Fold this sequence. Notes:
Elements: E1 13-17, H1 24-33, E2 41-43, E3 46-48, E4 62-64, H2 67-75, E5 79-85, E6 88-93, H3 94-102, E7 106-110, H4 113-122, E8 127-133, H5 137-147, H6 153-168, E9 175-178, H7 182-198
Parallel strand pairs: 1-7, 1-8, 2-7, 3-4, 8-9
Antiparallel strand pairs: 3-6, 5-6
Amino acid sequence: MKAAKRQKKPGKIFVISGPSGSGKTTLLSSLIQDKKIGKLLVKSCSVTTRPKRSKEREAKEYFFVTLLEFRRLLKAKKILEWTRYLGYYYGTPKGPLEKQLKSSKSVGLCLDLKGARILKKIYPHNTVTIFVLPPSLSVLKERIQNRCRQTNPQEVKQRMLLAGRELRAAGKFDYCVLNQNLTVALKELKNIFLRESSV
Length: 199
């Protein structure tokens, strides 16, 4: 009699949040580029109404859609969570994410607080939420100003106000990672991924 075929363990969703300038996108990209982890983790590809930039590729950086198509996907409940930023819509498509989970691949996403809460509610047993903390608000302000040299003082002020609200919600996440040193923060993030993936 043949032994029963072992059922594949579904993948997990790793949601990384944090204020603008905290380094969350850099950390997720670095995690996926790791030789060992890159075989188990893929980056979620968002749907957006933003126009495609010259070097961007369809279904690689984003799924580019019209506003009408975005609304149709929302109505059909094919988008798990969404947000509006600088006049454009961004959302997490349900189909591709669930396909990866069923194939035992884990999925990494950078989302705002609302998006993190929604995914945790939809997939409570599969979602791991990680909040990236800056060393201090003054360092965060410096990072925002250095990254966006054309940003006017009013926009920097708005980003800092938002960062304050986001930092107050950090305690509601499964993990917090301090990004004072990128190498140290990445090592901590790797440990979280490996620990949670073995559960």
